[in-house]
Amino acid sequence: MAQATVEKQQLTGALKRETVKKHVAAIHISGKLSLLQRKLSNVLLLNAYDTLQTSQSHAIDAKTLAMIVGYNSNDMDTLRAALKSLAETVAEWDMLGEDGKQEWGVSSLLSYAKLKGGVCEYAYSPVLAQKLHDPKVYALINVNIQRNFSSGHGLALYENCYRFVRTGSTGWWALDTFRKLMGVEGSSYYESFKHLNAKIIKPAVAEVNKTSDISITPEFRKKGRAVTEIRFAIKENPQLAMFNIDDSDGLRSSAVYNALIAQGVSDRLARQWIAEHGDEYIADKLKYVATKGRVKSSVGYLSAAIKDDYKTVPEAVEIPPSPEAKKLAEARRAQMAADEAAQDERAAERAKMREKFEWVAGLVAARNPTQRDADKRLFLSELKDDLEREDFMRHGWRSALNARAIFAFWDGMQG
């Protein structure tokens, strides 16, 4: 059964500024969660975050969820198994409450989850929702970054270190605590620090430093010759700051985004709706809501219109349309069908591109460090354009500019 602990870090020196909290209390999601389950947990929390304390349940399109997590959207059996595992996972915290008294608590990560009509509905217990919504207690993980992890241990270490990025250090963990956070407690093999360091610590640290926006360094404390405690020094990774770059700035300048904000929709929810449904669909629902005049809750009504695809019912027309109007309507319908087909084609191409990049990531992960270095050197030697070489140096095997060349290279390597 997975566990989660909460640790308190006392800040010292310059960190005692008024703008910095006096402590960081973090829930560490630990235990034997798979990589998929960890990614799923983070995406569900991100989707629900804005309404964690105001809604008893939350929902997300199942295929959208699968796409963000990064697995086959038609594999509902895997999704069901992952949701069941999260509902069976226990989170535990032990921390100082707002009143200064020690507070212990336990809750399942999800109080329930269900799949119906292509929608995933789920909920958190009220007390856990309160903890997860408090940035002093829990830090959201950037799903654009977690998508690049290929191992559960690497993502688990990133999560547990990212909680403490503001303080610069995780603080000392007993090795038994660290084994629980990595999900290898109870394994006689990892009782040996030699094995733990070689198979868990070093590979996980390497993956965090290579694929995330932070850089971590392990430090060890000994009793005699035996290592008894571990902590991680944490700093930002400026070379990989690109992982924090998304299309948010461009999206926030769009007319649809600003119309949503004007309606009182939160920044996070506005970006989520546009990402899931597209500008045209959201603009259509905004127009629909505008025709209804004053409503009790414009955000709530808009949310329902988006979820259930409300459509304006055309008024009855007594005079039949002219032949010219019919031709115009047919032309518009044909154009709309063509636009929809083109949009579907672009979506399919993007999905195929993501699958190909995941395929490349799997091949790269299977290579040893010497082979990986040789692969990069060989590929770089085949690039003639300076811009292409620079983009590959920055983004590695996920360089969109070099996508076709990367896929062709690995196709050749396979055969």
TrEMBL record:
One record GO biological process: DNA replication initiation
Gene3D superfamilies noted in UniProt: Winged helix-like DNA-binding domain superfamily/Winged helix DNA-binding domain
The organism of origin for this protein: Paramylibacter kogurei
Family: Belongs to the initiator RepB protein family.
Protein name from the UniProt record: Plasmid replication initiation protein
Coiled coil: none
Domain of life: Bacteria
Domain Initiator Rep protein WH1 residue range list: 19-161
MF terms (GO), sorted A to Z: DNA-directed DNA polymerase activity
